[in-house]
Design a protein that fits this description.
The protein is of the alpha/beta class. It has ten helices and ten strands.
Length: 264
């Protein structure tokens, strides 16, 4: 597939999807969203893919929406319907990431601002360089954190910190983001590529379906009672317990060898 705003490669079970507008800090446009939908659909349907790594080209992960994109331009004095842009582009992007059939890693190598920060948080694991930072810039232009920002932030860091990040629009350094539990890990810039590759390789040979069911259960938990969650866990254990990866995992444990999971 030929893309102009992103790149996509698949090798050894690892899909690498890169936002590729480095001169614009990989900010989102209507065209980029269209390409992302195509790429994520391809990953969803390619059974050789076992993990997705989402990253940004150049010195940023993503600076959010490109404010110069025609999709949010004022035309003949008429203001754009930004809510429609959210519904058309950002909501489907977040839902695709949250429901992807493989685990996802956001590799944040620089600024992740606005929608860019939320897209990173929509991934299962976020690794960031020490020089990276996260920014909820919406209040500076009279808007609210979108792309799931008002959902992800309170769940990850609590209401007090979420409100501070959203209302004050201060940069959050990656190291503090890790300390607060907003992201999985902050690594030294020089070690970043190796750390991302190591994690991607680890997940690419893991029991994929079990990892995705774990994601689904954890996302569902806040809306359930303990009893409901226990029932959901039982249903998932029943499904996975009849699957080949569980049989392989047990056989490998008994045989004192490394398991060879298929992801099923």
């Amino acid at each position: 597939m030929n893309f102009e705003n992103i790149t996509l490669t698949v090798e050894a079970g690892i899909a690498r999807l890169t936002l590729n507008r480095p001169d614009k800090l990989n900010s989102f446009t209507e065209a980029m969203h269209s390409e992302l939908r195509c790429a994520l659909d391809h990953i969803q349907n390619d059974t050789t893919v076992r993990v997705l790594v989402l990253s940004g080209a150049g010195r940023a992960f993503c600076a959010g929406q490109d404010l110069a994109d025609p999709c949010i331009a004022t035309v003949n004095g008429k203001m754009p319907d930004i809510g429609n842009v959210v519904e058309r582009n950002y909501k489907p992007l977040i839902m695709r990431l949250q429901n992807l059939r493989v685990p996802t890693i956001a590799a944040v190598n620089g600024i992740a601002a606005g929608a860019g920060a939320s897209v990173a948080l929509a991934c299962d694991l976020v690794l960031a360089t020490r020089s990276a930072s996260f920014l909820q810039a919406f209040s500076k232009i009279g808007l609210i954190p979108d792309t799931g920002g008002t959902w992800f932030l309170p769940q990850r860091v609590g209401m007090a910190r979420a409100m501070g990040l959203a209302l004050l629009a201060d940069k959050l350094p990656a190291e503090k983001a890790a300390e607060w539990g907003l992201i999985w890990q902050c690594v030294e810039d020089a070690d970043f590529v190796v750390a991302v590759d190591t994690l991607a390789q680890q997940l690419s040979i893991a029991p994929t379906k079990a990892l995705v069911r774990t994601r689904q259960l954890m996302h569902a938990a806040p809306g359930h009672t303990l009893e409901q969650q226990l029932s959901m866990e039982g249903a998932a254990m029943r499904e996975l317990g009849w699957g080949p990866d569980y049989a392989e995992g047990v056989a490998a444990f008994i045989g004192k060898r490394a398991p060879r999971f298929t992801g099923e």
